[in-house]
Design goal:
about 350 residues; alpha/beta; Lysozyme; Aminopeptidase; 2 domains; seven-stranded mixed sheet; two-stranded antiparallel sheet; 12 helices; 9 strands; about 40% helix; elongated
Length: about 350
Amino acid sequence: MANYSEVFKELAKSFAVANIRFPNLKAVVLAQWMLESGRGHSMLAIKHLNFGGLKWRDEMQGFATPVDYTDFANEGDMYCGFNSVDAFINGYWHFLGRSPYAGWEAHANDPEAFINFIATIYCPSNEDYSENVLSLIPEAVALLQQSGEVAVFSSVSTTSRYKVRFYSGDYLVRQKAANADKCICYVEHHFNSAGPTANYALVVVAKNASLTTINWGMRYAKAVASLLGTAVFAPASPWPGVAIGGIDGRGNGNLLYAEMPAILLEPLFVSNPKQAAQLKQATWQEALAKILADSICEFFPDGGLVAFSIGHKGKTSNPTDCGAAVHGGGYECEYAELVLKKAATLLEREAC
């Protein structure tokens, strides 16, 4: 039987009967707190009733107090301190209400989609964070039931054909990790940048790309061009919309070592004022995500693990890189991440 601290048992009892907006998330959230606090045995949990590893942010004023804490890696920082387990529960949801987590409610109907969405923000350095949390759900369900929760919504979708995993690190590292995970396909999302009138849709594939990969890229580029009312990239080859080996080699190395069909997306130009304005609207982001999800469902109908890579973001060799500046504000990688997360939700719900 798992060894919980007394204060974690108190947390579980309080959370079991708590009236929260999305009760179906109780099991996955308690599983996350188990992981973060070592089942309540971390000093942050014992001394400060912080079971989620929540660092202090100014927006937490009124919900927590700042405390100086040194973690297991001997790194000191300011964390949130709470005066009761109920204050922590309320504070956790307020923490997720801050701008970095904007949009999490859209994933609240599916515990797995929820933790996949917040994981890349909550713990970006740990690619296995979601899997580690999900593995604890059965234990969390049992603890909630023991603590007084009658109806625990524990379901994590097991019927969906698709699961999505986000990869970070330098591009070679991402590809090798996706190979090791036996992913069925690999998508790296970028946006293009040039002059203010540039407006074609482009997909890069590696110089060793298969015919399936090329056809997949053409299908995506054509659909995006139709959506935006633009042209597809027209190389001197029979493959409109697709640059084999990249333009002057750019992007080839991002895909060359992937052992599954792999494409690099550049659907529009963030330097183009009209296209940048469209990209900033949720409806256009959702439309781009839908095209991507539909293309994956079409070319990989048997399902499996899908690899997503946010262009520029998360590179070990250049951690501050976020790609091209978007006309009117923001950066390329921010919008690539938004589109990929929306596509991931569609795939995991099989909304394609």
